[in-house]
Each structure stands twice: as structure tokens, then as C-alpha cells.
Amino acid sequence: MAELVDAADSKSAGGDTVRVRLPFPAPVRIAGLVAEVTLLPAGMLMQGGGSAGLRRYGVFAGTIVAIRRQSRSKIPSSRRVLAECDFGRCWPLRALPAVSNHFFLSCPYATCNVILLIKKSDDDGRLARVPEFLTTDWTIEVADDNDRDAFAAALAQADACVSMDWPEDMPAAPRLKLLHLPGAGTDEIAFQAVPAAATICNVYEHEIGISEYVIATMLQWMIRLDELQANLRRGCWQGSYLFGPAHGELFGKTLGIVGYGRIGKEVARRAQAFGMRVVACSQTARSGDGVIESVRSIDRLESLLAESDFVLISLPLAENTRGIIGEEQLAVMKPSAVIINVARGALIDEQALYAACKDHRIGGAIIDTWYRYPSKVTDICEPSRFAFCELDNVILTPHASAWTDQITPRRNRVIAGNLDRLARHEPLINVVRSATMESVRC
Predict the structure, then answer these.
(1) How far apart are the first and last CA of the chain?
(2) Which single residue of 75, 110, 146, 429 has CA 20 to 30 Å from 94?
(3) pTM of the predicted model, to two decimals?
């Protein structure tokens, strides 16, 4: 809770001095000289309050502090105003013009030591370079999420948390201002359980590795490099120009992309370089981007499936996309067509996909995202309840398409950048859900 530390008239200090202790980074109320102090994002000032809402008044760099006067209370000349954060740092604040019944102060650059919580289960090296990229003061704490009491105590003090999941029964997080996912998918986040005052952000940077994987596996499907090499190691020249058979080409083939987001766009650019024709559909139809002529609506999914030699699934998993590829959709694909899943296993009906591959109703599948996952590296875990591994028309990989040697530094840099923005009260990037202004104010 905030407290008014000092409001004495100090001529030696150059006029009235107001010293306010502020918790970071939350709205506060102060009895006495001022009624309310609110930290606002840079460039946004509060006018009126309550039903009066917000409006743009001016743009100022850094932290904005709005002090609303109580009725009949005197606003000091405030030639010197200090706002002291919970961690003891004093912020000299510069007076800005008054608006309505508010008196505004600005600090061009103000940060304080704040707490970032990482689950012990996530402390496996994937976030190791976040401290290296931070430019603001953060205390990074690792808490054992298998010890609920210890984890609850740590979460109660956290200003930010990095995690890919947030279940319904997550302990209270009253100070939380940022839940940052270390990946892109939000299917493990119970949004209604995340405090309304917290912004939810994710991070991408996986589209480069995934797009290279898609091109590599399509090339492998057409050329069969592993078979050619294995043959020659045995002294067999099968597949050569001498005896054949000839292998295929990507050139001239049609790639259909279901879900034209970051991954879809990166794949399309690379596929075009190989002379492939690229078509795409997404949740909403839109014009082309120079790589494809247009993006069709998802309502036209079946027409895309019918004309494609390769079908890439790169949609996010949500209630309206779960099982979007089922028996009916697989039935309209070409008998030679190959479906590629680099998004989430549950986007394709598991049994329908197995049956279509086993019965050779489609050419086959390239599967990187699955239906079952191990909990630790030593677990022996079949990726499906069906024997995909016994089928010779399926390429299987263990959700590895994005996992390159560059994804961790790229993602860590983005996460650290958002933590810095939070500490400086700057707008965040990759926002999935914004904090509600009412929860931030009250």
C-alpha cells in the first residue's frame, strides 16, 4: 500500500516537497494531501476518472504519474517531488501541466528492482540468456512448481512470470503484471484464471526453423536421400541414372497452406524459390502479399485440399480448429498428396489420419507434432495410440522442427525486451491479451 512519507514545506529544497512511496507497478491511493497516484503508460494521461475514462493529453517519455487532488486540498508548487518505490529508489519527478482535477508528474526514465518468477520445471536452459539481454533491474527467482505452498508464496510476490501453462487452479498472483509465454501456443493458458491486471504476451521466432524443416522434409519426400545413400553404402546403384527409378521434383508442385501466419508466410517464400505454386487459406480471406495471389477463407478449405500436392497445417489450436482435418477432409485430397503437421497434433483427427495413411488413401504424412508427449527425457513414450511408426509412408520427428541452435537466443532477447518495457512502463509487443484498464486503475 502507498503512503505519504512527507509533505512539508521546505524552502531549502526549493519549495514544497512531496515524498510518496509507490509499490511497483500498481495504482495506489494516498490519504491526506493527495487522493490517488496512478502509474500510466508513456503517452497516456488520465482525465477525470471513473466514467470519464481516458483521453490522450500529451506524449511524454517514460513513466507518467498522475496525482489527483482531494476536494479542498491544496496542490503544492511541487518544485521538488520524489516518488520512492518499494525497493527504496527515489524518482525525481518533473511537473507537467495540470488537467481537470489532476496534477501530472513525469519521470523520463525510472525503473526499480522487480521480481521475475520462473518455474523450476522450465529452468532447463531455455531461458538461460534472458539475464544477459536485460537492461533493467530484475530479481529472477526459480520456484519449485511441484511444491504448491512454496510456489504460491513466490508467485504472490512476482511482478512477471514466464510459463507456457497457466491452469485454472493456479495460486493467486496479486502483483502480476505480465505473463510471458516462452513460445507461441496459448492452448495451455486458462485465460480467465490469469489476473486481469496482467498482460499476456507470447514469443515467436520459430518460423525460420520450421520453414526450413518443411522444405527439407518435402525434398526428402521427393528425393529419398536416405534410401539413395543406404543403397550405395551396400554397393547398390538403384536410383541412379543407370538403372533408375527416377526421383521427383518440388518444381511445379502445389503447396496448400492451412493457416497463413508467420510460419505459413516463411514457408511460402521458400517454396516459391523452389518453383512451387503456393495457395493458402486462413480464418479470414485477404489479399495477397506478393508471394501468393490471395488468402482464401477457411470455408474454402476443401477446394485447397483437392488441388494440393503437399498440405501444410500451421494453424493455432483452438476450440474452432481442433480436429479441423478429419476423415471428410482427408477424403478430398489427392491419392498422392502428403499432409504436413508442424502446428499441433490435435488439429488432425488421429484415427482418421492413421487410417488414411495405412490404407494409402493419401500419399502419406510428415508429422512433427503429436498426440502424446513424455514428461521427462528418460521416458519411453509412443507419440500416438496408433502405430504410425510402422508405416513406410510417414516421416516422423519428435516435435523438433523449430528447435534450432538459434531459437533460444532469439526468444530470450524478445522476452527480455518485454521485461524491460514493463519495468519502464512502455508498450509491450506480442500482446495476446491486454490488461484491463479498470483493473490497473483500481
Answers:
(1) 12
(2) 429
(3) 0.74
